[in-house]
Every structure is written in structure tokens, then in C-alpha cells.
Amino acid sequence: MGYHLRKVAFYLVALWAAVTLNFVIPRLLPGNPVDILMAKLQQRGGSVDPAARQAYETLLGTGGRDSFAQEYLAYLGNLLRGDLGVSVSAFPAKVTDVIGDSLPWTIVLVGLATLISFVLGVGLGALVGWKRGTWLDSLVPATTMLSAVPYFWLALILVALLSSGLGWFPLNGGYDVVLDPGWSPEFLGSALYHGTLPALTIVLSSVGGWLLGMRNMMVSAMSEDYVLTARAKGLTGSRVMVRYAARNAVLPSVAGFAISLGFVVSGSIVTEQVFSYPGIGSKLLQAVQNNDYALMQGIFLVITIAVLGANLVVDLLYGLIDARTRDRSTVS
Amino acid sequence: MTTLEVRDLTRTFHRHRAVDGVSFTLTAGRTVALVGESGSGKSTIARMIARLIRPTSGEITLTGQGGEPVARRAYRDHVQMIFQDPFASLNPFHTVEHHLARPLLLHGRSRAEVPHLLERVSLTPDLAGRRPHELSGGQRQRVAIARALAPGAKVIIADEPVSMLDVSIRLGVLKLLDRLQREEDLAVLYITHDLATARHFSDEVLVMHRGRIVERGPGDDVLLRPQDPYTRQLAAAAPDPEARFRQAFRQGGQP
Amino acid sequence: MTWSGKLAAGLGLAGLIVLFGLLGPLLTGDPATIRDIGLTPPGDGHLLGTTITGQDVLAQLTHATRGSLWIGVLVGVMATVLSGVFGIVGAYAGGVVDEAFSLFSNVMLVIPGLPLVIVVAGFVPADQRGTWTISLVLAITGWAAAARVLRAQTLSLRNRDYVAAARVSGEKTWRVICMEILPNLLPILASQFVFAVVLAILSEAGLSFLGLGAADSSTLGTMLYYAQNGFALQREAWWWFVPPGLIIALFGGALALVNFSIDEIINPALRDRVRRRRDVVATTPVAAPVDEDVVLTVSDLNVVYQGATPVHAVKNVSLTLRRGEILGLAGESGCGKTTLAYAINRLHRPPAEVTSGSVVLDGVDVLALGPEELRAFRWVRLSMVFQGAMNSLNPVTPIRAQLQDVLRTHRPSMSTSDREARCAEVLRLVGVDPARLGSYPHELSGGMRQRVMIAMALLLEPQVMIMDEPTTALDVLVQREILNEIKRLRDELRFAVVFITHDLPLLLELSDRIAVMRGGEVVEYATAEEMYLRPQHPYTRQLLASFPSLTGERGALIR
């Protein structure tokens, strides 16, 4: 099987595992989510007809009335139709609509922050590794310390210092509420302005991991014979560093992207909460606090799919930058 | 007399025949040299005889001193292996003592035999407390030989036992193996890519090429008067300063 | 800082925090006592001030530290055991078990952890959300990355000869895993455990801060939750909000130091290097070469590896190389032959240092060149071929890019088509099809790769080529082809060669002159013929005797 096919197959398996996990969790854990949801629904003046109950039961379990297999098939059927149920906390909005509204915010925030963090960390890591024995070495413990700080704590300290203290950034939110969301320059500028501090938090907290990993690989790559050969060839220092050492040292960072992305996504959920950012992380917490199980599951599924998708893209890119993987026959 | 017979041994990896229908016999008191280039299948044969990998087909039968077949369970009491790289074949975490005591205990002997084992391979018993990184390459390979002897094995598979050692100590290790073979009546399979030592240290030479034995016989016949084109090529490729200075050599006398 | 210094500092700091969490609660009184002195700044009586309800922050901090550490250790142990089972056992068992375990680990790895934990925590009613539940969930979502690392390491250990040797001596499988593999995994297990502890403390803090933590525990996360809900920062009560976060950061930082030192134990290359002292030595002024034919003169060269006990790797070595000559450099591992070769081209790296002597190549005093002059000198006048051609070629770019790099740097004015033509020309010279220019190194055989390296060394037609064990890794037949190729090219192109190897018979056949090295010194330096017929030094004789002749009298050697 070719490299690409194998990767796609792996992510399909992972997707199936996530979907199934989503199905199993409410059925295995204690508590009776359907009853809680129906009670909530009643409070909000929603319909309590049997159809609504049945919809939730498909999602969360019938309490033993139907067989596991029947429930599973019904659940998969709903997923395939794109039906994730109705949100209780945002009643009567559908879960898919709630997610659709908040997802772009998170994708832009987390995507940009991850990209900046990766480029910055890998770039600095290459430089620190290359210039070993200079003052740059101190960047390693400094950024590692930052990664050991809880995201939300750093975020709150940054807000206290830069927003409350100096007034450079807004306290919270994703945009100035007097503006109408749209593609107007004012709105985009405001969104950018509001997104800077959350993005800065994510970058500061995650850059250390990239930097350390790249620096260590750079040091290993520099003792390789091909770097020695490149130096013997009389190539310029920058060419040896970029084309020979860094080009090889970056491979494990790219291969390990999955692990790091998981951390960033986890951290950004908490960060969004701190900044009351209108993204999917804040929505997830609202859902949890309001026992909005349908929304909770939907968001988990969407986050997982987004992460799997990003990893698939990175893995396919990896095949492009390392010719050897295409010829290897090992599994993932 | 302990005899190990290999009949029609074949091993395939992913449809590639690494070893293809190989047969030979190892008998006590004789050294058989298995010669070939990397990838010829010689190490695969060693690992099959040591029961590290299974043959795809073919048989390996062992008969004990009195001619009786040896049970599967007792196989490792009789057949042991020496690996190529003494830096890799000793666990950096354990002492020499541990490396020798374990096989002794596993085969119903006593830990007290460790000093004697070390003496048999010309090492001093005070090395027992050291770890591999405190030993030289030659010392390590001697420890590895002692480990192979520990269960009282009569068949020794030596897979390139000196190719990772410095040149000036190679002959010493080979001479030790040769002495043990004669004194203890061992059956030795000496696997190597070096034609010269194969000729000097064996009673029979088998030449392997692409999984098959292409030529076999006494060392002098096979290597000085090779019949197979591949063996001829191999013999011609070895560095031969004599050829260059033969003229001067005749005039100049003793080297 | 050295690795032992980092380990000591990290363990010391982490130890202090652990002590703070263990003993602190015994000394600081009840953290829950409410007083009517809300938000008192630090001072007498309350070293770290009070919370909004007048609780003592220091007392809360000690209890919270204990709670966080407990969860950290709990999760650390569980996650390490899980990763060990899936990583080590799977990799050792191999086959279908390994495929299944590895697939499972990878799936768990790509499913984002914290969202999953939040969903699980959301379904469990708050009163049933205890420390053990939270720890279990964190462990289940946090073991996969470590399993992947352990699997890779176990796969490499499993194929080590000492594992095979243990199996041959009859060890049982569980004993091979526990006694042969596990001890060598200890540093990695330790580092993964430390990482799991930090991750657990951070994740738990996040969960508690969101109000989803364990209901029955007080941790640094819950403390921050209350501080945030009491608007600690808005009221400028920094003493309430800052210390819990700082403890987490310090503990994480301390354990990161521990992990740095473990990394350096596993991979010595990462250890701090001695800083570069001076780069260029003062050389003795060079007299004009007497012999017009001499291209390379090395005189009284000394190379020392600086350190606590300096190692004199090359001692007073003097050599001369004439145009078109092959000079053999023979010696065993550690004799200084490779150090000497690198020093000639100044490729040696700290702590190696040329302490005295001179290297003159065709009138150029190599040791006196400035950095830019040195760069321009390399490969133009002197090129090198290294031992492992697989490792000398950059694995991620095609051959073409690596050949063209040389021309692009040293012949910047050359046109693209001329460059391509020259690269094809040198490949043809060494008998490689120019169509191979687009190939990656791993697509070529060992012999072919070494030919490409030789082609690369020919690109700029240098006067001298240094070859460091160029045929050692190759099979006899390929070695013979490469040697014939070198001889033919030398005759055609008249470059001089320094050929380094441990194989004295090969040098006797190939070289014009031979220098035998031992312990950094040249013990004998003579023409090949002289050395073959009348070796002077006892070590040369010993080396010669180490190679039994294929055709010589049989048995004279041993019996």
C-alpha cells in the first residue's frame, strides 16, 4: 500500500474511533443525561413530545430499551445526515448551527497561533542549535519555563498587565460589539486586535516545545557526516545550516506535529474561556456548564475531525519533504 | 560424536530467498568456514541454527555424543552463538559476572564456574566485576566466547567474530577459538567475509552467493584453485601486495 | 551547566516543592478558617496575605500543592504503566500484537486529550467526580505519546545482539524484557514519567480552573479557580493569584531541567561544549618548497583534544605529498589518522585544537587562512571522501542538488546548463549513469553512493583528495572496483591522494608511500616497496603479521 493511502486509511480508523468513543461515553458513564436534557428543555419552553426525547436518546442512549447495535446504527445514520441534535443552551438552535458560528473564530485563532509558534520555534531552535555555546543557549530554559506555565494563568497575567494595566489590548471578546460581523475592514481590524493577546498567549506557551525539539535535533544533525561533508565542500555557513542541518533536523518536528497540535488545541480551549473568545472552546465550556450534552458531543466531534484533518495534511506534506517515507513499508 | 546436520535449509523474506536450499554438516573437532559477501545469506543461516529465526523449509538436526537425537528443549545446551559486534552483544547494563552466570544457571551449572570460564578464554577472573564499557574490544569478544561456552555447548556458531575488532588483535581471538575447538572437541561454524582467515582456520570452506552454496571443499582447493566463477572473482579481488612486489620479493629475500 | 548540575538543580527545586507540599500542611494550620480580614496583603501573621474570605493563602498553598502533587504522581504512575504495556510489550511481541497496539496508541495520540477529558467530566455528575476518577481519565488520555517513544526505543533495543544473545542462552521472554530491555529503557521511562507528572498537574489545573476538577480535592487549580472567581487580579490581590501559578511553573521548570539532563545522559552530543578558544594557530613561516613537485607539506603538526586531561591525538607529524602520488596512512582505531586528516583541512571541531605545526598546500599556508579564505580554499584545492557514503550524502535532497551546490558556491558565474553538464560529466567519469542525477541517496547501492562521492570530490579538479576509509564499508568486489577506479582517475587527472585505512595490505598494493601511525605518531614512513620488503618498526611488522596472506603457506600461521 502506498504511503498516502496508508495515511488516509489510518485517519479513517482514527475518525471511526472518535465517533465510536463519542457514542460510548454517555452510555458508560453514570448519570441520566436524557432526563436532565428533557427537564432543561421543558424549562426553556421547548416541546416535550416523544420525538424530541427519541432524538436525544439516539444521541445519548435509550437506557437499555434498544439494543446497543440498533442505537449505534441509528446514531451513525444521524451523523451521516449531519444531524447532531438540538442545543438546549441555545434553544432552539441546532448544534450544527452553533458550531458553524463559532468554529471559524477558533480555526483562525488556533491555526494562526500554531503556524506562528511553529515557524518561530523551529527557526529559533535551528539557530540556537547551530550557534551552540553562545548567549542564545539561554533561550532554551527560558522558553521551556514558559511551557510549564498553565495557559490560563499566563493569559490572566497578560490581561492584567497589558490590558487592565497598560490598556494596550481589549479585556475580552472576539471583536468590538458595536460592529456588525462581516467582511468590512473595521470588523476585520477589530477581530485582529482582539485576537492578538489570545494568540500571543498560545504562542508564548507553545513555542518552547518546538524550540527545544528542533534545537536537540539540530545538534544531532550537526554531528552527521553529511554536514561535515558540506563544510568540507566549502559551502557558506548559512547554506550548510539551512540546506543540510536544518532541512534534516526539522523532519521529527513535522512528524511530531500531531502531539503538539493536541496540546495547542487543549490549551486554546482554556485560553478562549479566559478571553470570553467567541470560539468553539468557550462554547464547549458553556455546554458543559449547562448540561447541553448534544452540543458537547458535537463540539468534541468537530474538534477531533479538525485535528485529524490538520494531522493528515501535515503527514501528507511530510511525504513530500522526506522522499524516504514514500519508499518505506512500515505502518504509520 | 556431536553432529549438527543442516539439510535443504531455505528462508524467504518478502518473497526474496535469502537462503536457498543449503545443506552441510558440522562435526565435533572440525571447523567449517562459511564465506560470502554481505547479503549472501550467511548470517541468516547462523540465526536459523541459533533458533533466533525459523527456517521457511528444511531441517536442522542435532545428534548428541552417543549418536542419539537431541530433544528440542535441550538444543540450547548444545548449540551456542558468538555475535559479530562485541560492543552490541553485551548488555551495557550488566557486569561480566552476570553475562556468564546467567547461562551457567540456566543450564544447571553453578555460578562458581565463572572464574574458570574466564580463564578458559585467557582473561583474568578479576574482570568479572566490570561492565562492558570498561573492557577493550578484544576482551569483550573473549567474554562473548566464554558466554557461548558456559552452557557446555559443543556446537559454536561464530558470526564474523573478529570483523569489528582492531586488526592487530583479530588473530589472537581467532587463535583462541581454534585452540578451544581442538582442546574441547567443538564443532565450529566460522562465518566470515575474509577469505584468508577462512582458509587458515578451517577444515572445510563453503562459499555462499545469493543464498546458495556455490562451491565447497578443503580451503586450499576452494580458494587457491577456485572452480566457480564467483569464487574466482572473490579470490582475485582481495588485496594482494605480493603480486605487485613479486619481482622485488624474489630479489630482495625475506619480508 | 553540565548535565549533573542540571540534574542537581532540577531535583533540588522539585524536592523543595515536594517538601513544601508534604510538610507545609503540618505547619500552617487550617486553610479553610474564615476570618474577617479579607484580602489582607502579605505581612505579619499571614506571610502570603489572605483570600477574600480571610483564609490564609500560605496554608491554602501548602494544601493545594499537596493535592496537585498527589494527582500528578497518581497520573504519572498510571500513564507510565499504560505506555509501558502498549509501547514495550507490543514492540517486543512484534507481529499482529505490535500492529494492533501501535495503531491503538496512534489513534489515542491524535484524538485531542483535553476536549475528551472535558466531555467525560461533563457527563459525570459533580458529586461523583473524585480524585481517582479525574486521575484515571487524565491517565487514559495522556499515555499515548510516551508509548510511541517507548515503542520506537524498544524496537531498536529488541534487535540488539545482546537481546538475541540472551535468547540464545535460553532466557525466558519475560526475563529478556525485564532484565535485558527494561534496564536500558530506564532513562526514557524516567523522562516520560516526569513529563506525565507535569502534564497531569497542568491539565488538572486547567480542569479545576474551568470548574471541572475533582470535587473532593483542593489543588493549585481549584485555588486559582476561587482566586479568579473572587476577582483576585481585578482587586490587585496578586498574592492570591500569582503563587499557585508560580508553584506550577517552578515545578514544571524543575522537572524540565531533570529531563534536559536525562536527554544529555541518553544523547551525549547534547551536552554543553567547551567554548571555542582560538581558531587559528600561529604557524611557522613557510620556506618555499624545495621540490617543485610537492603539493602538500605537513610539518610538525600537533593536535590536542583540550579538556580536563588533554589528549595529544596527533604528535609532531610531518608528511609530504607529491603531484599524482598516493600516500597511504595506516593505523588502527584511535591512532589519530582521522584527526590528522581533518586537521589538514581544518575540519576538526572543539575541543580538538591544532597547537603547533604547519600545513602548506601548493604554497597556501592552510592554518593561516581567514574563515572566508578557508571556505573558498576547501574543495577547490583539497576535497575529501568520507567513510560511510550513505551518511556523507544528504538523505533528503537528490544527488543533483548536492553536486550543484559545490559549483553554485565556488563557480557562481557558471550557467545553469554548464553546471548540469559538468555534473553529468563527473558522474560519467566514475562510471555512474548521469540519469541518476535525480536520484536520492537511498535509491543507490553502497558502491554507487561512494562513486557519487568521488565524482563530487572531482568536480573542481583539486590538487589533493583525502580519502578516509573510502572502501571499508563496502564488499570485496565493490572495493576492488572502486580501487581500480581511483587508480585510473589518478593516472588520468594527476591529483594526489591521501588514503586512510586500517588495511595495510590494501595500502601496500595501492600507494606509493605509506605512513604507519600509532598513538598519534608516525612510527614508520617509507615507500610501499620498502615497507613490504624491509619493515623497520616492530609495530609495522606486527600489523603486517596480522593479515594472513590468502596464498601464503597454510598453517604456518597457527598450528
From TrEMBL, chain A:
Q: Name one Pfam family in it.
A: BPD_transp_1
Could you tell me which residue ranges the ABC transmembrane type-1 domain spans? Answer: 103-318
GO BP? transmembrane transport
Membrane-spanning ranges: 9-29, 105-130, 151-171, 191-212, 249-275, 295-318
Give the record's membrane topology.
Answer: Multi-pass membrane protein
Q: Where in the cell is it found?
A: Cell membrane; Membrane
Q: Which UniProt keywords apply?
A: Membrane, Transmembrane, Transmembrane helix, Transport
List the record's Gene Ontology CC terms alphabetically.
plasma membrane
Q: Which PANTHER family match?
A: OLIGOPEPTIDE TRANSPORT SYSTEM PERMEASE PROTEIN (PTHR43376)
In the record, the note on similarity to other proteins reads: Belongs to the binding-protein-dependent transport system permease family.
Question: Which protein, by its recorded name, is this?
Answer: Peptide/nickel transport system permease protein
Q: Which organism is it from?
A: Lentzea albidocapillata subsp. violacea
UniProtKB/TrEMBL annotation, chain B:
Pfam families listed in its UniProt record: ABC_tran
Q: Name one GO molecular function term.
A: ATP binding
Ranges for domain ABC transporter come to: 4-235
Record keyword DNA-binding present: no
Alphabetically ordered keywords of this record: ATP-binding, Nucleotide-binding, Transport
> Which GO BP terms apply?
transmembrane transport
Superkingdom, natural source: Bacteria
- CDD domains registered for this protein in UniProt: ABC_NikE_OppD_transporters (cd03257)
Output the PANTHER family linked to this UniProt entry: ABC TRANSPORTER, ATP-BINDING PROTEIN, TRANSPORT ATP-BINDING PROTEIN
Protein name, UniProt field: Peptide/nickel transport system ATP-binding protein
This chain's source organism reads Lentzea albidocapillata subsp. violacea
From TrEMBL, chain C:
Lineage, uppermost ranks: Bacteria, Bacillati, Actinomycetota, Actinomycetes, Pseudonocardiales
Q: Which Pfam families match?
A: ABC_tran, BPD_transp_1, oligo_HPY
GO terms under biological process? peptide transport; transmembrane transport
Q: This protein's superkingdom?
A: Bacteria
Give the transmembrane region(s). Answer: 69-93, 100-124, 130-150, 181-201, 238-262
Q: What is this protein called?
A: ABC-type dipeptide/oligopeptide/nickel transport system, ATPase component
Instruction: Name the source organism.
Output: Lentzea albidocapillata subsp. violacea
Does Transmembrane count among this protein's keywords?
Answer: yes
The terms describing its cellular component in GO are:
plasma membrane
Q: Does the keyword Nucleotide-binding apply?
A: yes
Q: Where is the ABC transporter domain?
A: 298-544
Q: Tell me, what is one Gene Ontology molecular-function annotation carried by this entry?
A: ATP hydrolysis activity
User: Main localisation, per the record?
Assistant: membrane
Family listed:
Belongs to the binding-protein-dependent transport system permease family.
Regarding the membrane, this protein is recorded as: Multi-pass membrane protein; Peripheral membrane protein
* Cell location: Cell membrane; Membrane
- Which residues does the UniProt record annotate as the domain ABC transmembrane type-1? 69-259
Q: Which UniProt keywords apply?
A: ATP-binding, Cell inner membrane, Cell membrane, Membrane, Nucleotide-binding, Translocase, Transmembrane, Transmembrane helix, Transport
